[in-house]
Amino acid sequence: MKNNIFRFRIFLLLQLFVLALVAQIPVGYYNAATGTGATLKTQLYTIIHTHTARTYDNLWTDFQTTDQKPNSTVWDIYTDIPSGTPVYSFTFGTQQCGSSGYTNEGDCYNREHSFPKSWFADATPMYTDLFHLYPTDGKVNGMRSNYPYGVVGTASYTSSNGCKLGNCVYPGYSGTVFEPIDEYKGDLARTYFYMATCYENLIGGWKNNDANGSTILSGNAYPAYETWFLNMLGEWSAADPVSQKEIDRNNAIYGIQGNRNPYIDHPEYIYSVWGVGNLASSTPEPTNYPTNLSAKNIKIQWVDASGATIPEHYLIRMSATGFNNISTPVDGISYANSSTDKNVDAGVHQVWFTNLNANTIYYFKIFGYTGSGASSDYKTDGVVPQSSVKVP
Prior knowledge:
Layout: H1 37-48, H2 58-66, E1 109-113, E2 133-137, H3 138-144, E3 152-158, E4 164-168, E5 176-179, H4 185-198, H5 211-214, H6 227-239, H7 244-257, H8 262-265, H9 268-274, H10 279-282, E6 291-296, E7 299-303, E8 313-319, E9 341-345, E10 350-352, E11 360-370, E12 377-378, E13 386-391
Antiparallel strand pairs: 1-2, 3-4, 4-5, 6-7, 7-10, 8-9, 8-11, 11-12, 11-13
C-alpha cells in the first residue's frame, strides 16, 4: 500500500450533505473497452484515434493551456525540479526558440517530439499531436536528439535537473539513450503507450524510418515495442503513478484535440493490454477515505472521498459481532454483494442492509476502491471509517 495517509473525522449524522464532484472523463467514453491484450488496444484505438489535428504554429499557444505551471511559467519536464527551484524557467511567447536557435541551457524553449518525428517520417497527424509534444529547453532537447529513452550508465551529458544522455544499462539494449528524471518517467511511458494505441494502424510501418527508432519499435501493431522497451515503460509507469499534472494536461488536450490518453484515465489498461508493470501500482488506490460515514435504521450514508485519486466504487462490509470481525479486502479480488457485503458506485452515497435482527448492534466499515475484478485496488491503510447502529 502507498504511504499517503490522511487524517479524517468520522461523524454519525441524521442528515447527509452531499459533495458534488465534477467528472472529467465523459460518461460512457470507455464503455467499448471491454477486452484484454491486442483486443483491448484496438478497442481503445477506435475510441481515441479520431481527433482534431493541430498546425505546428498552434502548438505555441496550445502549450499555454496544456503546460503552464501554477506560477504561469512554462512547465518544462527537461529542466523542472519538482522538489525545488529550477535553475531556469521560461516565459510563454517571449522566450520561444527562434531562428537564432540556442547555445546554452536557459536560452529558449521549443517543441519537443518526445516520440521523435524522424521515427514516423515527419508525417501528420503525429507531427502535431499534443499528447507527445512538450515544451522543453532547446539545448536539452537538442542533446536528446532522437535517441530513445532508457536508463543511463555513464552520462556524457547531464542537464540542470538531472536528465542524462549516455549508454543504456537497462537489460536488452546498450546503445545511447536519454534518461528523464524519475518524476516524469511515468508521464513519458504513458505517452508512448498512447502513441502505440492511437496510431496502431501506422506504427507497424515505422520500424525502418530511423536507426534509433528501430531499436525500440517491433515492426507490428501489437505489441508495437521491443520487449526490453515495453518492460522498462511498464516499470516507469508503475513507479511514477499518474499525477495531477497529467490529469490536468489530459483534460486540456481533450478540450483542444477531442481525444484522451486512456492510460492516464485508466492506468490499469497498461497491464491489461501488455502485461507489463505492477498491476496494483498501475491501478492507483484512492487517496483518501470517504468521510461522514453514518448508520441510521440500517441505511448507511457517507460523503464521497476527495483527493488526487477518487474512488470509483465503495465496498461496505458488515458484522453483527464487532469491528474486529470485519475482514480487510485484498487487492485484485472482487467481493460479490451479499447480506454482509455491498458494492456501491461513487456518487450514490448510501446503501441499505436488510433482513437484520431486532435489538442487535451491527458494525460497518467502508473501503473505497478503483478498478474492478483483478484490477481492484482498495484503500486499506490508515484508520478505516467505521460506524455502528442498533436495530430496534
